[in-house]
Every structure is written in C-alpha cells, then in structure tokens.
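From the shared-data thread, chain only:
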Amino acid sequence: EARGITSEVLEIVQAAEARYRYPVAQVARPRPDSLTAYKFGYLYETGTAYFWSRRDEQFASLVGEVFGEAAEAWQTVPEAVFFSDADGTEVLVPENDAAQAILHGFIPRMLWGVRGVDDAAPALIVAQDHDESGLPDPGTEVPVPLDSNGDRFEGRGLEIPLKVRDANGSPVATLSILEPRFEVEATLTAGTPPDLRSVVLDGAVSSEALIQVVVTVTAGGIDEEGVAAILKDFYGLDPALPLPDTLPFRAGFRPTPLDTTTHSR
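Structure, as tokens:
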C-alpha cells in the first residue's frame, strides 16, 4: 500500500516537471559531469520521490530482518559467549581522531564465541549481533583457530565481513577486514569457564571498498575523489600519490560475558 502511494506521488512530481523554469535534464536528472560532489541536479531526489521511496526501502529492510526466513543461530555452537558494543570498542589504526570516529561507527556490536578449550584446540568464533539478540546475524560467523602463547593467543582468518548500516539500521554496505590477525588475552583452561579479557583485530581494508562505503553512507554528499583525499590525510600519505590498494586497520575490543540464557531467537 505504501509503495502504491509512492507511485502516485511519483506521477504528480514528474507531471510538475513540465513547469520547471530550467531544463529538466539540468536540474532533475543524473549529472555525472557535475563539478560539485553531487552527481545529479538539485531536484533529482524530488523527481524520483526519494523521500517516499527511501522510507519504503527502510521499512522493507526492517520487515525482512524481523520476519525473514534467515534464522539467527550459531553454526558452530560455542562453549561461552562474550560481546563488545561501542563502549568496548576502540579503533587503534589509523591514528587520527577524525578517522577513528568515522571507522568506529562502522563497527557493529560483536560476538566472541569460545570453544575447544577442553580439547586443547581453542578457537574464537567471531560474529556480529546488530539486533542484540545474543545470536549471530546471518552470514557473519567466522571461526578462527587459536595458537597458545601462555595467557595470550593468536589466530588468523581469511576475511571478516563487517556489515555497515545507516542511521536507521538498514544494511547499506559490507566492509571486509582482509587477512585478519587476532591477538587474544584470555584464560582458557580445561575444566574451568573461559575468561576472555581482550581481543585485538589487526588487518587491512580495501581502499576502493572503504571509499564506496563512505560515499554510500553519506548518500553522495562527497564524491570518490574527495573521500580519497581525506583518506590520504587520515593515513598521513602523500596527497600527490595514488592511494595504495589496501590500508591498515587495527581495533581493540573489551569483551563482556553474555548471559546466553536470556538471549535466544
């Protein structure tokens, strides 16, 4: 029904375009050759009924997440679960306050499962938990085998996909941490409950992917060239040289035990 109303709105606003003072192609259509950061005319969002269709998409995304068929469940059930939210997350690299604030907003609530302690084969199970259900968001669970070094452990994975969401909670992009390395401080002793004290995630992000995420999140408020210039400043790179293919990324987490008896879906 909402989409039907949006279609009616679209007919009305497009009919009004015949009365515009300036050419429709100039003020209300895509303009990839624009000299501004906006690759469209200033009435483009009006002509597409964006302020109606955007809410349609946001609501459809919400309905899909709440009532969708994808069930939240551990693929590899951990023996203990910890979580870290925004207060327990710190971006360490890049060492730039503005960059750290931006990237911090891309990191979702994380789940840290621990298993294999009694079998002397400990593993960290990394997942995301946007809805705070205590169970992994579908498609986010990544197992990481751990090698022991006293009360510190190290592990490596292939890729950690971080699902980036807009202010309304709708997923808009995925930023993957490439070649992730984990530094874990924990007490993992057979016969006793695991104690996970800190996790440091060290890896890299694709420059192109990071640019696209920023452009998407800002809804075109800044173009790719502008984002690239900002990233060079954040990382202290020569502005005259092109961005490297990947940029370093490092974040620290302070896990908190999760009471799994009160979280289920």
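The mean pLDDT is 88.
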